[in-house]
Amino acid sequence: MDAFTTLTAVAAPLPAANVDTDKIIPARFLKTIKRSGLGTHLFDGLRYAPDGSERPEFVLNQPAYRKAEILIAHENFGCGSSREHAAWALLDFGIRCVIAPSFADIFHGNALKNGILPIALPRAVCDALMQDAAMGGNARITVDLERQVVIRPSGEEISFAVDPMRRHFLLNGLDDIGQTLQHEASITAFEQARAATQPWIPAIPVI
Amino acid sequence: MNPMTQSLFDKPQTLFDKPQTLFDKLWAAHVVETLPDGAAILFIDRHLVHEVTSPQAFEGLRAAGRKVRRPDCTLAVADHNVPTSPGRVGAEADSVLQLKTLEENVAAFGVPYIPIDDPRQGIVHVIGPELGASLPGMTIVCGDSHTSTHGALGALAFGIGTSEVEHVLATQTLIQSKPKAMRITVKGRLSPGVTAKDLALHIIAEIGTAGGTGCVIEYAGEAVRALDMAGRMTLCNMSIEAGARAGLVAPDETTFAYVRGRPMAPQGEAFDAAVAYWRTLPSDPGARFDREVVVAAADVAPMVTWGTSPEEGAPINGGVPNVVTADEERALEYMALRPGQGVAGAQIDVVFIGSCTNGRIEDIREVARVARGRSVAEGVRALVVPGSGLVKAQAEAEGLDRILIDAGFEWREAGCSMCLGMNPDRLTPGQRCASTSNRNFEGRQGPGGRTHLMSPAMAAAAAVTGRIVDVRELGVRELA
User: Fold this and answer.
1) What whole-number distance in Å separates Cα of residue B241 and Cα of residue B234?
2) What is the domain range of residue A82?
3) Structural domain includes residue A34
4) N or C: which end of chain A has fewer CB within 10 A?
5) Residue A23, in any domain of the structure
6) Which residue in the set A31, A35, A105 is minimally distant from B94, CB to CB?
7) How far is it, in rounded angstroms, from Cα B480 to Cα B469?
8) pLDDT in tens, A25-34
9) Do the Cβ atoms of B143 and A176 come within 8 Å?
């Protein structure tokens, strides 16, 4: 995972609630065995007409937002399936930060594990940022994870909350598994205790 | 009282006397270690693996030179991509690659795997409980949001992303912050013709698709206790559509009777020891929930969704709101409906009966009761897709396949099928579908497809009439 420290970028406004994972990346594009390459199908149904041509009205097809790295949306962003492909598609397109009033739980976790920072801010603040974003390349928004602030083009700073452990992992680009394996002795002890107290738990047989 | 005395006084109360919820007990029993920031390393008893969300996880293990820590806690099966046509013909090339990759990975890492041609193959959330791999008291995860289904057994079961799949494969644990506890109590009994699916859609319409965000929902009350295990699974399955991480129903005699004798469940004395433990799990009287919702079962009617979010639903005698938000307006445009329109009467092109929500034998029996002696309406394509090979075999042993085939339904092989449009079973643009699945998102069942979520009985009624109708007005023939 790439570390996330500070990002200054164009933000794309997507003023919709319940942007679901099927909208972010439809299921028919999940048949890959790689993490990369999904960016071309990000928001496929919104971005392309049935004949494959771009829908010019969709925000990410507009010249100002084709290289946007921040996305601003309404409530419950990322609801639906557990597919991490949603995070991979955003990342592959170049999105490193999503700002919305709220996020669905599984998407929130998936984003953080891929170096995408989901920032929850009140709807009124998101609406203000949405207005900034509407200025396209004339308005760059800065996200400073170290200081936990979003800086509007006006210079106004808005602080945001982030889980301290996730912040540490993002700032340093750390891998969860390596961290957990530092506790391997505890896991082994737990497994042994469990086998002793609940010996009735069967093993899944080799089929 | 000085602060020191206060804390000493409080300690025994908070540690030993505090009534616990079912969720508290399941959580506490699986904490390996609490990390400095309060998150827990949580032990995972069962990890179910399928072909879509696992390739990148195995690839990660390989790159880091890691093994699967507990193959004996892991079970793999292919379900999302498999063709469900008779003979399973017509697999798409990229699906074949994903299926082959799963077979290579389970062989390389020694993971128990149910092959596609095995009679036990099926949707991961159908086969887990059916085989007894998923048990009460366990933590169960899978790279699929509908893992909440297994909570019906009284297990803490939730969906995870691929990075977490890799984490569980490597460590048999997850790092998790404890969600909040929510209880939905359903008072009274559901009316005749009203099912667990209607209850789930009713609850989601009430609390919204973010109503359970950050929570584990325990379903309680007389109507929930009265549900059979299939109904409880339907209810818990849809928890994710309310935004919840997991759904739970406390284990009881219905649960134990269901689990007894299942091939991967404990047998004999081991089963009795397990039941003794499972009886300790239900929430203690007075246990505190962070949020409580009460639903009157008598208020629940057969439900149909009209929009593109599971919360956009109405009772069959209701309709689309007269005044709609901008998001709802977009949904109506997609669905080709208008504000104030009733949900009943819409012409249906396709009926899909199946999925991890409603692909169990009890669901197929409901459909057969409606279909018996009737025929699928002219111009309607109706698919019945059993949730597993064992469900299919059971239905065939009961003669349900004949009733359905005679009525003009397609009788298919087990798989996820038209629930999510990543196998050959898809809607074409503009088609309107009565579906027993779980999501009515834009394009979920195929680009441009229009999904109306409903119960199996309501979907069967749509199949035989060609439009959305109240199944209670049809009259239902008893199975011989």
Assistant:
1) 12
2) 6-175
3) yes
4) C
5) yes
6) A31
7) 25
8) 999 999 999 9
9) no
